[in-house]
Amino acid sequence: YTLSLHDALPIYPTSDPRQNYMPVAPDLVMAWLLGGARSGFRPAALAQCYGGALLMLSTYGIARRTCVSPLGSLGAVALLFGMANVVPQFSSVHTDLFTAGELAAAFCLWSYAAHRGEGSVLAGLAAGLALGSKGTLFYLLPGAAIWLAWTVYLYRPPLRACAATLLAAAFSVAVFCLPVFARNARAYGNILGPADSVRLVLGEGGSD
Question: 143 and 183 in contact (C-beta within 8 Å)?
Answer without folding.
Answer: no
